[in-house]
Amino acid sequence: MPRRLKVAIALEATAGGTRKHVRELALGLDKKRFDVHLILSFWRSDEMRVDLPTLRAHGVAVHTVRIQRRIDPVADLRALARLARLFRRERFDVVHTQSSKAGFMGRLAARRAGVGRVVHTPHVWPFQWTRQPMRGAFLALEKLAARWCERLVCVGREQREIGLARRVASPERLVVIENGVDVTPPPAKSARDEIRRELGVGDDEIAVGMVARLEPQKGVGRFIDAAAALARDHPAARFFLVGDGRLRRRTEARAAGHGLGGQRLSFLGHREDAARLYAGFDVFVLSSLYEGLPYVILEAMAAGLPVVATDVTGTREVVEDGVTGTLVPMGDASAIARGIAPYLADADLRAATGRRARERVQERFTMKRFIELHEKLYTTGNV
Protein backbone atom coordinates (compact mmCIF):
# COMPACT_ATOMS: atom_id res chain seq x y z
CA MET A 1 0.00 0.00 0.00
CA PRO A 2 1.45 3.40 -0.98
CA ARG A 3 2.52 5.71 1.83
CA ARG A 4 -0.06 8.35 2.71
CA LEU A 5 0.83 11.94 1.90
CA LYS A 6 1.23 13.95 5.09
CA VAL A 7 -0.67 17.22 4.67
CA ALA A 8 -0.78 20.18 7.05
CA ILE A 9 -3.52 22.80 6.67
CA ALA A 10 -2.79 25.99 8.63
CA LEU A 11 -5.43 28.61 9.49
CA GLU A 12 -5.47 31.59 11.85
CA ALA A 13 -8.95 33.02 11.14
CA THR A 14 -10.97 30.08 12.54
CA ALA A 15 -14.45 31.58 12.01
CA GLY A 16 -17.01 32.10 9.25
CA GLY A 17 -16.33 30.89 5.75
CA THR A 18 -12.64 30.10 6.31
CA ARG A 19 -13.60 27.84 9.20
CA LYS A 20 -16.10 25.96 7.02
CA HIS A 21 -13.63 25.74 4.13
CA VAL A 22 -10.89 24.17 6.26
CA ARG A 23 -13.24 21.91 8.23
CA GLU A 24 -14.86 20.45 5.11
CA LEU A 25 -11.50 20.05 3.39
CA ALA A 26 -9.97 18.23 6.37
CA LEU A 27 -12.98 15.94 6.74
CA GLY A 28 -13.38 15.29 3.02
CA LEU A 29 -9.85 14.27 2.08
CA ASP A 30 -9.47 10.52 1.56
CA LYS A 31 -7.82 9.28 4.77
CA LYS A 32 -6.50 6.19 2.97
CA ARG A 33 -4.35 8.51 0.84
CA PHE A 34 -3.79 11.51 3.10
CA ASP A 35 -2.61 11.88 6.69
CA VAL A 36 -4.33 15.16 7.52
CA HIS A 37 -3.13 17.64 10.17
CA LEU A 38 -4.72 20.96 11.09
CA ILE A 39 -2.70 23.83 12.56
CA LEU A 40 -5.09 26.25 14.23
CA SER A 41 -5.00 29.41 16.31
CA PHE A 42 -7.84 30.19 18.70
CA TRP A 43 -6.44 33.60 19.68
CA ARG A 44 -8.72 35.48 17.27
CA SER A 45 -11.80 33.23 17.51
CA ASP A 46 -12.60 29.96 19.24
CA GLU A 47 -15.63 29.04 17.10
CA MET A 48 -13.79 26.08 15.61
CA ARG A 49 -13.29 24.40 18.99
CA VAL A 50 -16.71 22.76 18.62
CA ASP A 51 -15.43 21.03 15.46
CA LEU A 52 -12.47 19.36 17.18
CA PRO A 53 -14.21 16.18 18.40
CA THR A 54 -15.58 15.50 14.90
CA LEU A 55 -12.24 16.24 13.25
CA ARG A 56 -10.34 13.95 15.60
CA ALA A 57 -12.95 11.20 15.23
CA HIS A 58 -12.24 11.31 11.48
CA GLY A 59 -8.51 10.87 11.99
CA VAL A 60 -7.47 14.53 11.70
CA ALA A 61 -4.60 15.53 13.98
CA VAL A 62 -4.90 19.02 15.47
CA HIS A 63 -2.03 21.29 16.52
CA THR A 64 -2.42 24.76 18.04
CA VAL A 65 -0.10 27.70 17.45
CA ARG A 66 -0.92 31.13 18.85
CA ILE A 67 -1.16 33.49 15.87
CA GLN A 68 -2.81 36.86 16.37
CA ARG A 69 -4.18 39.15 13.72
CA ARG A 70 -2.43 42.39 14.69
CA ILE A 71 1.25 42.88 14.03
CA ASP A 72 3.32 42.12 17.13
CA PRO A 73 7.01 41.48 16.35
CA VAL A 74 7.71 39.47 19.51
CA ALA A 75 4.57 37.32 19.30
CA ASP A 76 4.94 36.91 15.54
CA LEU A 77 8.56 35.73 15.78
CA ARG A 78 7.54 33.27 18.50
CA ALA A 79 4.76 31.88 16.30
CA LEU A 80 7.07 31.71 13.29
CA ALA A 81 9.60 29.70 15.26
CA ARG A 82 6.88 27.38 16.56
CA LEU A 83 5.59 26.76 13.06
CA ALA A 84 9.05 26.06 11.67
CA ARG A 85 9.79 23.56 14.49
CA LEU A 86 6.46 21.84 13.89
CA PHE A 87 7.11 21.56 10.15
CA ARG A 88 10.60 20.12 10.72
CA ARG A 89 9.44 17.64 13.36
CA GLU A 90 6.43 16.34 11.45
CA ARG A 91 8.13 16.27 8.02
CA PHE A 92 4.99 17.22 6.09
CA ASP A 93 4.87 16.45 2.37
CA VAL A 94 2.46 19.36 1.78
CA VAL A 95 1.78 22.53 3.75
CA HIS A 96 -1.40 24.36 2.73
CA THR A 97 -1.72 27.79 4.36
CA GLN A 98 -5.01 29.67 4.52
CA SER A 99 -5.95 33.36 4.88
CA SER A 100 -3.60 36.31 5.39
CA LYS A 101 -1.64 36.11 8.67
CA ALA A 102 -1.25 32.33 8.82
CA GLY A 103 -0.63 32.47 5.08
CA PHE A 104 2.38 34.76 5.35
CA MET A 105 3.89 33.22 8.46
CA GLY A 106 3.13 29.66 7.43
CA ARG A 107 4.72 30.05 4.02
CA LEU A 108 7.85 31.61 5.50
CA ALA A 109 8.12 28.89 8.14
CA ALA A 110 7.60 26.14 5.55
CA ARG A 111 10.33 27.65 3.39
CA ARG A 112 12.73 27.71 6.35
CA ALA A 113 11.82 24.13 7.23
CA GLY A 114 12.39 22.90 3.68
CA VAL A 115 8.87 21.61 3.04
CA GLY A 116 8.67 20.17 -0.47
CA ARG A 117 5.24 21.40 -1.56
CA VAL A 118 3.66 24.59 -0.24
CA VAL A 119 0.35 26.00 -1.48
CA HIS A 120 -1.73 28.92 -0.23
CA THR A 121 -5.40 29.92 -0.34
CA PRO A 122 -5.93 33.65 0.37
CA HIS A 123 -9.79 33.48 0.47
CA VAL A 124 -9.80 37.28 0.05
CA TRP A 125 -6.68 39.14 -1.05
CA PRO A 126 -5.62 41.28 1.94
CA PHE A 127 -5.07 44.30 -0.31
CA GLN A 128 -8.74 44.14 -1.36
CA TRP A 129 -10.08 45.37 1.99
CA THR A 130 -7.33 47.64 3.30
CA ARG A 131 -6.88 51.34 2.65
CA GLN A 132 -3.81 53.20 1.53
CA PRO A 133 -0.99 53.24 2.52
CA MET A 134 -1.48 49.73 3.96
CA ARG A 135 -2.96 48.48 0.69
CA GLY A 136 0.37 48.91 -1.07
CA ALA A 137 2.21 47.31 1.82
CA PHE A 138 -0.08 44.27 1.85
CA LEU A 139 0.27 43.89 -1.91
CA ALA A 140 4.07 43.95 -1.60
CA LEU A 141 3.98 41.35 1.19
CA GLU A 142 1.65 39.13 -0.83
CA LYS A 143 3.99 39.27 -3.82
CA LEU A 144 6.91 38.38 -1.56
CA ALA A 145 5.11 35.46 0.08
CA ALA A 146 3.96 34.20 -3.33
CA ARG A 147 7.60 33.29 -4.02
CA TRP A 148 7.51 30.85 -1.11
CA CYS A 149 4.77 28.61 -2.47
CA GLU A 150 4.19 26.45 -5.52
CA ARG A 151 0.56 27.44 -6.15
CA LEU A 152 -1.84 30.17 -5.07
CA VAL A 153 -5.32 28.64 -4.88
CA CYS A 154 -8.09 31.14 -5.63
CA VAL A 155 -11.61 30.32 -4.43
CA GLY A 156 -13.12 31.99 -7.50
CA ARG A 157 -12.21 33.04 -11.02
CA GLU A 158 -12.49 36.75 -10.27
CA GLN A 159 -10.04 36.38 -7.43
CA ARG A 160 -7.55 34.91 -9.88
CA GLU A 161 -8.11 37.81 -12.28
CA ILE A 162 -7.40 40.27 -9.47
CA GLY A 163 -4.19 38.40 -8.65
CA LEU A 164 -3.14 38.52 -12.28
CA ALA A 165 -3.99 42.21 -12.64
CA ARG A 166 -1.91 43.06 -9.55
CA ARG A 167 0.89 40.74 -10.68
CA VAL A 168 0.87 38.78 -7.46
CA ALA A 169 2.24 35.73 -9.29
CA SER A 170 2.59 34.29 -12.79
CA PRO A 171 -0.55 32.89 -14.49
CA GLU A 172 0.52 29.25 -14.16
CA ARG A 173 0.92 29.59 -10.40
CA LEU A 174 -2.56 31.07 -9.87
CA VAL A 175 -5.11 28.26 -9.97
CA VAL A 176 -8.82 28.11 -9.13
CA ILE A 177 -10.63 25.67 -6.86
CA GLU A 178 -14.09 27.07 -6.23
CA ASN A 179 -15.79 26.54 -2.90
CA GLY A 180 -18.35 23.77 -2.86
CA VAL A 181 -21.22 22.49 -0.73
CA ASP A 182 -23.15 19.26 -0.38
CA VAL A 183 -26.37 19.34 -2.39
CA THR A 184 -28.84 17.20 -0.49
CA PRO A 185 -32.43 16.42 -1.49
CA PRO A 186 -34.86 19.30 -0.87
CA PRO A 187 -36.20 19.24 2.71
CA ALA A 188 -39.56 17.60 3.28
CA LYS A 189 -42.51 19.87 3.95
CA SER A 190 -42.58 18.58 7.51
CA ALA A 191 -39.01 19.80 8.07
CA ARG A 192 -39.85 23.21 6.65
CA ASP A 193 -42.97 23.43 8.80
CA GLU A 194 -40.98 22.50 11.90
CA ILE A 195 -38.38 25.23 11.32
CA ARG A 196 -41.01 27.85 10.58
CA ARG A 197 -42.83 26.97 13.79
CA GLU A 198 -39.52 27.31 15.61
CA LEU A 199 -38.99 30.73 14.05
CA GLY A 200 -42.60 31.78 14.64
CA VAL A 201 -43.37 32.24 10.94
CA GLY A 202 -47.02 31.91 9.96
CA ASP A 203 -48.31 30.06 6.91
CA ASP A 204 -49.11 33.33 5.15
CA GLU A 205 -45.82 35.05 6.03
CA ILE A 206 -42.67 35.31 3.91
CA ALA A 207 -39.34 34.77 5.68
CA VAL A 208 -36.35 36.77 4.46
CA GLY A 209 -33.07 35.62 6.00
CA MET A 210 -29.46 36.72 6.12
CA VAL A 211 -26.64 34.69 7.66
CA ALA A 212 -23.47 36.67 8.36
CA ARG A 213 -20.96 37.65 10.97
CA LEU A 214 -21.93 41.06 12.35
CA GLU A 215 -18.73 42.71 11.15
CA PRO A 216 -18.14 45.71 8.87
CA GLN A 217 -17.42 43.48 5.84
CA LYS A 218 -20.99 42.18 5.75
CA GLY A 219 -22.79 45.54 5.48
CA VAL A 220 -25.51 44.38 7.88
CA GLY A 221 -26.72 47.94 8.45
CA ARG A 222 -27.89 48.10 4.83
CA PHE A 223 -29.91 44.91 5.33
CA ILE A 224 -31.57 46.50 8.38
CA ASP A 225 -32.38 49.64 6.40
CA ALA A 226 -33.83 47.59 3.54
CA ALA A 227 -35.97 45.57 5.96
CA ALA A 228 -37.33 48.79 7.45
CA ALA A 229 -38.24 50.12 3.99
CA LEU A 230 -40.01 46.89 3.04
CA ALA A 231 -41.84 46.38 6.33
CA ARG A 232 -44.11 49.34 5.69
CA ASP A 233 -45.50 48.03 2.41
CA HIS A 234 -45.22 44.28 2.97
CA PRO A 235 -46.92 43.36 6.26
CA ALA A 236 -46.47 39.62 5.57
CA ALA A 237 -42.66 39.92 5.40
CA ARG A 238 -40.58 38.69 8.34
CA PHE A 239 -36.83 39.32 8.52
CA PHE A 240 -34.18 37.20 10.25
CA LEU A 241 -30.53 37.98 10.91
CA VAL A 242 -28.40 34.98 11.90
CA GLY A 243 -24.95 35.71 13.28
CA ASP A 244 -22.99 37.55 15.92
CA GLY A 245 -20.01 39.87 16.10
CA ARG A 246 -18.65 43.27 17.08
CA LEU A 247 -21.57 45.15 15.52
CA ARG A 248 -24.32 43.25 17.39
CA ARG A 249 -25.35 46.09 19.71
CA ARG A 250 -25.03 48.75 17.03
CA THR A 251 -27.12 46.68 14.63
CA GLU A 252 -29.82 46.06 17.23
CA ALA A 253 -29.89 49.80 18.00
CA ARG A 254 -30.24 50.55 14.29
CA ALA A 255 -33.21 48.20 14.04
CA ALA A 256 -34.81 49.72 17.13
CA GLY A 257 -34.38 53.17 15.59
CA HIS A 258 -36.44 51.97 12.63
CA GLY A 259 -39.10 50.58 14.94
CA LEU A 260 -38.33 47.01 13.88
CA GLY A 261 -39.33 44.92 16.88
CA GLY A 262 -39.04 41.18 17.37
CA GLN A 263 -42.18 40.48 15.34
CA ARG A 264 -40.72 41.96 12.14
CA LEU A 265 -36.95 41.50 12.58
CA SER A 266 -35.47 38.71 14.69
CA PHE A 267 -31.82 38.53 15.78
CA LEU A 268 -31.02 34.83 16.11
CA GLY A 269 -27.37 35.21 17.09
CA HIS A 270 -24.67 32.72 16.18
CA ARG A 271 -26.18 29.36 15.22
CA GLU A 272 -24.11 26.24 14.60
CA ASP A 273 -27.16 24.91 12.72
CA ALA A 274 -27.54 28.00 10.53
CA ALA A 275 -27.64 25.97 7.31
CA ARG A 276 -30.64 24.05 8.68
CA LEU A 277 -32.64 27.29 8.88
CA TYR A 278 -32.57 27.83 5.11
CA ALA A 279 -35.41 25.34 4.77
CA GLY A 280 -37.64 27.76 6.66
CA PHE A 281 -36.69 30.85 4.64
CA ASP A 282 -38.26 32.04 1.39
CA VAL A 283 -35.61 34.54 0.27
CA PHE A 284 -31.93 34.90 1.16
CA VAL A 285 -29.99 38.18 1.32
CA LEU A 286 -26.28 39.03 1.59
CA SER A 287 -25.26 42.70 1.76
CA SER A 288 -21.46 42.27 1.85
CA LEU A 289 -18.95 44.94 0.88
CA TYR A 290 -16.47 42.31 -0.36
CA GLU A 291 -16.23 38.52 -0.51
CA GLY A 292 -14.08 35.63 -1.69
CA LEU A 293 -16.77 33.18 -2.75
CA PRO A 294 -19.38 33.06 0.03
CA TYR A 295 -20.49 29.72 1.41
CA VAL A 296 -23.75 31.13 2.76
CA ILE A 297 -24.92 31.94 -0.76
CA LEU A 298 -23.97 28.48 -2.00
CA GLU A 299 -25.85 26.91 0.91
CA ALA A 300 -28.92 29.09 0.34
CA MET A 301 -28.98 28.30 -3.38
CA ALA A 302 -28.49 24.57 -2.70
CA ALA A 303 -31.56 24.83 -0.46
CA GLY A 304 -33.53 26.25 -3.40
CA LEU A 305 -33.70 29.89 -2.31
CA PRO A 306 -33.59 32.95 -4.57
CA VAL A 307 -30.73 35.22 -3.50
CA VAL A 308 -30.54 39.00 -3.39
CA ALA A 309 -26.90 40.02 -2.99
CA THR A 310 -24.54 42.90 -3.54
CA ASP A 311 -22.68 42.89 -6.84
CA VAL A 312 -19.17 42.25 -5.49
CA THR A 313 -16.28 39.95 -6.37
CA GLY A 314 -17.10 36.31 -5.74
CA THR A 315 -20.81 36.82 -5.20
CA ARG A 316 -21.48 37.63 -8.84
CA GLU A 317 -19.71 34.39 -9.84
CA VAL A 318 -22.45 32.46 -8.07
CA VAL A 319 -25.56 34.63 -8.43
CA GLU A 320 -26.59 35.18 -12.05
CA ASP A 321 -28.68 38.33 -12.09
CA GLY A 322 -32.26 37.65 -13.14
CA VAL A 323 -31.65 33.89 -13.29
CA THR A 324 -30.63 32.55 -9.88
CA GLY A 325 -31.29 35.75 -7.97
CA THR A 326 -30.78 39.49 -8.07
CA LEU A 327 -27.56 41.51 -7.87
CA VAL A 328 -27.70 45.04 -6.45
CA PRO A 329 -25.14 47.83 -6.02
CA MET A 330 -22.94 47.52 -2.95
CA GLY A 331 -23.88 49.78 -0.04
CA ASP A 332 -27.31 50.75 -1.40
CA ALA A 333 -30.12 49.81 1.02
CA SER A 334 -32.81 51.09 -1.34
CA ALA A 335 -31.50 48.83 -4.10
CA ILE A 336 -31.51 45.85 -1.71
CA ALA A 337 -35.14 46.59 -0.86
CA ARG A 338 -36.06 46.87 -4.56
CA GLY A 339 -34.29 43.58 -5.20
CA ILE A 340 -36.22 41.76 -2.48
CA ALA A 341 -39.65 43.25 -3.25
CA PRO A 342 -40.54 41.15 -6.35
CA TYR A 343 -39.89 37.92 -4.44
CA LEU A 344 -42.22 39.04 -1.67
CA ALA A 345 -45.00 39.58 -4.17
CA ASP A 346 -44.65 36.48 -6.36
CA ALA A 347 -44.47 32.91 -5.04
CA ASP A 348 -43.99 31.51 -8.56
CA LEU A 349 -40.95 33.79 -9.08
CA ARG A 350 -39.48 32.59 -5.79
CA ALA A 351 -39.95 28.95 -6.75
CA ALA A 352 -38.58 29.26 -10.30
CA THR A 353 -35.56 31.30 -9.26
CA GLY A 354 -34.81 28.98 -6.36
CA ARG A 355 -34.98 25.95 -8.63
CA ARG A 356 -32.47 27.49 -11.05
CA ALA A 357 -30.24 28.46 -8.11
CA ARG A 358 -30.14 24.89 -6.90
CA GLU A 359 -29.32 23.59 -10.38
CA ARG A 360 -26.41 26.03 -10.67
CA VAL A 361 -24.84 24.75 -7.48
CA GLN A 362 -25.31 21.14 -8.60
CA GLU A 363 -23.58 21.91 -11.90
CA ARG A 364 -20.55 23.83 -10.64
CA PHE A 365 -20.14 24.22 -6.87
CA THR A 366 -20.27 20.74 -5.35
CA MET A 367 -18.26 19.51 -2.38
CA LYS A 368 -17.20 16.46 -4.40
CA ARG A 369 -15.47 18.64 -6.99
CA PHE A 370 -13.91 20.82 -4.28
CA ILE A 371 -12.34 17.80 -2.57
CA GLU A 372 -11.21 16.04 -5.75
CA LEU A 373 -9.37 19.12 -7.02
CA HIS A 374 -7.55 19.57 -3.71
CA GLU A 375 -6.51 15.92 -3.74
CA LYS A 376 -5.14 16.39 -7.25
CA LEU A 377 -3.32 19.56 -6.16
CA TYR A 378 -1.63 17.81 -3.25
CA THR A 379 -0.54 14.80 -5.29
CA THR A 380 0.48 16.46 -8.58
CA GLY A 381 1.05 20.12 -7.69
CA ASN A 382 -1.63 21.33 -10.10
CA VAL A 383 -5.35 21.14 -10.80
Summarize the structure in words:
- It is a single chain.
- 45% of the residues lie in helices and 17% in strands.
- The strands form 2 sheets. It has a 7-stranded parallel sheet, with helices on both faces. It has a 6-stranded parallel sheet with strand order 10-9-8-11-12-13, with helices on both faces.
- It is built from 16 helices and 13 strands.
- The chain folds into 2 domains: 5-180 and 366-380, Rossmann fold; 189-364, 3-Layer(aba) Sandwich (Rossmann fold).
- The chain has helices at 16-28, 52-57, 73-90, 100-113, 126-129, 134-146, 157-165, 189-199, 220-233, 248-257, 274-277, 295-302, 315-318, 333-345, 347-364, 367-380; strands at residues 5-11, 34-40, 61-64, 94-98, 117-121, 151-154, 174-176, 206-211, 237-242, 265-269, 283-286, 307-310, 325-328.
**Low-confidence sequence ranges:** none
The CATH architecture of the largest domain is 3-Layer(aba) Sandwich
Strand neighbour order, sheet with most strands: 3-2-1-4-5-6-7
Structural class: alpha/beta
- State the separation between the terminal residues, measured CA to CA: 24 Å
State Rg.
Answer: 21 Å
